[in-house]
Predict the 3D structure of the following.
Amino acid sequence: MSTDNLENQASNNIFEAYVKALRNYFNFKGRTSRYDYWGFWLTDMLVIIIFSVLSVFLKETPAFSSLSDNLKQAYGLLLIIPRIAAIVRRFHDTNKSAVKWILLPVVVSFLFLSGIVAVITDKSTVSIWASMLVLVLIVGLWVCLFRRGLPEDNKYGPAIAENKGQHNKGIIIPIVAWIIPIIAVLLVGAIGGYSKAMTVHKADRTATSVYRLLGSAKGLNGETPIVEENQEGRTGEVLLKGMIPLGGEMNIRRVNGLYTVTLDEVSQAGCEALFKHNWSELPEFIGLQIQGKTDCTSCTEQNPCTLEWIYK
């Protein structure tokens, strides 16, 4: 069977529809059936969801989180053209001009919104109007893309053959394609909430590590102090052995009668959780600071934080 004949038939499954859309990367001519378009759209959305979930799970691992985010951004950029091309071919399948039914509404909407902005100075009101306009455009576009293609040839190309199963799936998949993003948003939100809760829990456990190291350094409960200043003013230093809940290495030193506990390789989320912890429960606590940075937002994935606790 020739390639032309294959292009004039609906795909057997959504993954085949995805591959077909990529194969027609720069093709803005011809037609795409309802089943093929929404099969591509659904598979594309599943890939984005996978990247999003990975980013949430790997948030506390800077290197992998950065890689996942970069891959997601690269994927989004690479798929811009085939997404637009698929929309254009879908409109052709319903015998509509993509320029007339996509470009014209966008231009009219832009001019309409510009007029509103020129008349109304209340930014919140403009934002409401803009949101309503975008919603209308999205619903209108969805309705156009949901329409069944012409069963006969038109000026954009020959009709695309669909069996009954593909026709029925072409109705169901668009509905599913709208439900899945809603579920995905709720899922990512739940995972994000769980991740945040775990970060707070790890911060509380890290507090225990700080207190334990401080107690050992001071020689509390009858222990021998493990950090002392020598006559030259240099300080002893000890690493806390074992796993630190938020990662990195913890050490302590004593200078001019003050104890400084240092924790390296702290993520932005971990930094924020540690700053929210109530460290003043120990009367000797003086302060918590970020070494060499202004605040937690300045801690990047490539250059994580170093935190210092100061105690008497």
Observations:
- Residues 202-311 form one domain.
- The chain has two domains: 3-193, 202-311.
